[in-house]
Amino acid sequence: xxxxxxxxxxxxxxxxxxxxxxxxxxxxxxxxxxxxxxxxxxxxxxxxxxxxxxxxxxxxxxxxxxxxxxxxxxxxxxxxxxxxxxxxxxxxxxxxxxxxxxxxxxxxxxxxxxxxxxxxxxxxxxxxxxxxxxxxxxxxxxxxxxxxxxxxxxxxxxxxxxxxxxxxxxxxxxxxxxxxxxxxxxxxxxxxxxxxxxxx
Length: 200
Hints:
6-stranded parallel β-sheet
């Protein structure tokens, strides 16, 4: 499959774009950025130098993915959500790019519209950050976080459905009422133990 790049978009020489990816109006992809296959960059998306984006990622309108951000496969970034890469920015004291804090968003995670991700955190796999939330610390796998600052508000399945599992104690188990996937709680969040077809 070929790459689609809208005529109004700018892709700098040296950027790597995977097959089947679509880059829409007024985007800018910087040199050294790596974007996987089958991604979608909505209108007015900026991708900074050295950013790594996995396959199947969807970035909605008006999102800037700055240097230091890593998006694993199948991440969803909602409209106008914000990444940062410097904890104490000063216009008068520019930071060395080598000092940018790394922010990693795990596979399958979703970040809601207008959320802000303070740099240096990890968003766990299949986690869900609510619209308008401000994330200031790590988010566990499959956790749902809401508010300012963002706080744990339950768990979500691969399919996005909220889980009825209430406790976070290690060893607690539960299943998705929508798709049947089963989970058990661990120190880093939920772990899939039964897939949607009933297998382990």
